[in-house]
UniProtKB/TrEMBL annotation:
InterPro entries: ACX4-like, Acyl-CoA_DH_CS, Acyl-CoA_Oxase/DH_mid-dom, Acyl-CoA_Oxase/DH_mid-dom_sf, AcylCo_DH-like_C, AcylCo_DH/oxidase_C, AcylCoA_DH/ox_N, AcylCoA_DH/ox_N_sf. This is Acyl-CoA dehydrogenase family protein. Belongs to the acyl-CoA dehydrogenase family. Keywords: FAD, Flavoprotein, Oxidoreductase. The lineage of its organism: Bacteria, Bacillati, Actinomycetota, Actinomycetes, Kitasatosporales.
Length: 415
């Protein structure tokens, strides 16, 4: 039987076994093992490939440096309009109208290179643009969406508070009081990505009159609106998260999101963005796998690449299986979203599962690298650390599990 020219095989030399590694088929070893990229039309495949190439050429070479410094590469924003990736899933007002699956695959490709940059993208496109699309009036969409799509204005989304994370549906403490045609906002927000530089920040606050949660678009520089960058993070360090003080912030009625009447409207946005974080987790896992695989083929111990050892191959196989399972779930969730059928429970399951699996994948990658797994030099350390934030934000694993559990049993286990 002839040897396959693209496989690793053994031959005997002087009584000892030597392992010869040949270049493997890229389709068989890249993290898209089941070729999910082929599920979209050719023009979308080209768009996604362009994003992949752009990220590898422009983001990858500087990702470790900016991550270590805790800074964001603002200079890259000017290059984004030509990629045409803002608001991919939406139609109208200049949006591309390519659907949730294309948007998810794009997020995946960005996170495959740098989860921090993918998070920046998700905050602007998945939270900022999505909120205006879902909760804005026609006039507000016409006023804000085109500039957001062109990246002329950047968006942020302020829901979480210092003392209110998972309990925002019932316990939001930021307040809004109406005085004529003006709203007065008071409170604090925390973990708000992009907030240190965003031009438009969607702030969610409880109306003192009726107790319902409403959304307000606050422009950068508004008196009383003060963001403070959060320092000391060990995950997604390039993301500029902020704690925001709101002291008698005056917002005109024209800037209150006219279709945001209660937390149910907030939840419509979170359903879609929860799936976006799930895609980011898939991308993070793919990047970790590919970095670990490359290392395993290059690193030699006992006279051969460590990729030749059974334990390493077992870990790579487990990683690929986890990634593929997450991809399959996310693809189906995106298809349901495009059909208008995605439920909160389905989005929660995808986020819960993918962010749990990414933890396992990055742990395997870190294990393959041994001591080098804690160095930025080999990329895995960054993916390993960033997985922790993906695991927690947009709903912790436990909270999403309870949403799925309520669907499974018909009984709410929330307090």
């Amino acid at each position: 039987m002839s040897e396959h020219p693209q496989s690793a095989h053994e031959h005997h030399a002087g009584g000892r076994t030597a392992v010869r590694i040949h270049a493997a088929d890229p389709a068989a070893v890249e993290a898209d093992f089941f070729h999910i990229g082929e599920l979209v039309p050719p023009e979308d495949q080209e768009r996604i490939a362009a994003v992949r190439d752009w990220a590898r050429k422009n983001v990858a070479p500087i990702a470790d440096e900016y991550w270590e410094r805790g800074e964001f590469p603002h200079q890259l924003i000017a290059q984004l309009p030509e990629l045409g990736i803002a608001g991919l899933q939406f139609s109208g007002y200049g949006a591309p109208g390519r659907g949730a699956l294309v948007a998810g695959l794009t997020s995946m490709e960005l996170a495959r290179v740098d989860p921090s940059f993918a998070t920046f993208y998700g905050v602007h496109s998945g939270l900022g643009i999505a909120t205006v699309m879902e909760c804005g009036s026609e006039e507000q969409k016409r006023r804000w969406i085109p500039a957001l799509l062109r990246w002329e204005k950047l968006a942020a989304f302020a829901l979480t508070e210092p003392d209110v994370g998972s309990g925002t549906a019932r316990g939001l403490t930021t307040t809004a009081r109406r005085e004529g045609d003006t709203w007065i906002l008071n409170g604090r927000k925390k973990w708000i990505g992009n907030a240190t530089f965003a031009d438009l920040v969607v702030v969610w606050a409880k109306d003192e009159a009726d107790g319902e949660v409403k959304g307000f678009v606050v422009e950068k520089g508004t008196p009383g609106f003060t963001p403070h960058r959060i320092a000391g993070k060990v995950s997604l360090r390039s993301v500029q998260n902020a704690e925001i003080d709101l002291r008698d912030v005056r917002v005109p009625e024209a800037d209150r999101l006219q279709e945001a009447h209660s937390f149910k409207d907030t939840a419509k946005v979170l359903r879609a963005t929860r799936l976006g974080v799930s895609w980011n987790a898939v991308g993070c896992a793919m990047g970790a796998y590919e970095a670990a695989r490359a290392y395993a083929l290059e690193r030699e111990q006992f006279g051969k690449p460590i990729a030749a050892f059974q334990l390493v191959q077992d870990q790579l196989a487990r990683m690929l299986a986890d990634i593929t399972a997450c991809q399959a779930m996310n693809v189906r969730a995106a298809q349901l979203q495009d059909a208008g059928r995605l439920t909160d429970q389905q989005a929660s399951m995808a986020k819960m599962f993918s962010t749990s699996r990414v933890r396992e994948v990055v742990a395997h990658a870190r294990e393959i690298l041994g001591g080098n797994g804690i160095l930025l030099d080999h990329e895995v350390a960054r993916f390993w650390a960033d997985a922790e934030a993906l695991y927690s934000y947009e709903g912790t694993r436990d909270m999403n599990a309870l949403i799925v559990g309520r669907a499974a049993t018909g009984i709410s286990a929330f307090v």
